[in-house]
């Protein structure tokens, strides 16, 4: 394979990579906007079920 064809294939792969990244960010932005539009303004639930530490409880009281 001549160097020109190798370069053309590498350029094509770079273009596909860049377009893929742009597409991902566009879709994530649209989904994030839809999520904000349809979700209520409430605090998200905790990702764990552990009770708060005693130190955290005392800090909130002061």
Task: Characterise this structure.
This protein has 62 residues and is mainly alpha-helical. The protein contains 2 helices and no strands. It is elongated. The protein starts with a helix and ends with a helix. The mean pLDDT is 84.
Summarize the structure.
The chain is 71% helix and 0% strand. With 62 residues, it is an all-alpha fold. Keywords: Membrane, Transmembrane, Transmembrane helix.
Ordered list of secondary-structure elements with their pairings:
Blueprint: H1 3-38, H2 54-61
Provide the residue-averaged pLDDT. 84
Number of helices: 2
Global structural class: mainly alpha
- Assign a percent range to the helix content: over 70%
- Global outline: elongated
Biggest sheet overview: none
Keywords: Membrane, Transmembrane, Transmembrane helix
Transmembrane segments: 6-31
List descriptors:
transmembrane; membrane; 0% strand; mainly alpha; 62 residues; 2 helices
């Amino acid at each position: 394979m001549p160097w020109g064809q190798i370069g053309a294939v590498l350029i094509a792969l770079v273009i596909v990579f860049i377009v893929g990244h742009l597409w991902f960010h566009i879709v994530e932005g649209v989904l994030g906007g839809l999520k904000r539009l349809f979700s209520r303004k409430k605090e998200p639930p905790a990702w764990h079920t552990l009770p708060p530490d005693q130190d955290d409880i005392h800090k909130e009281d002061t």
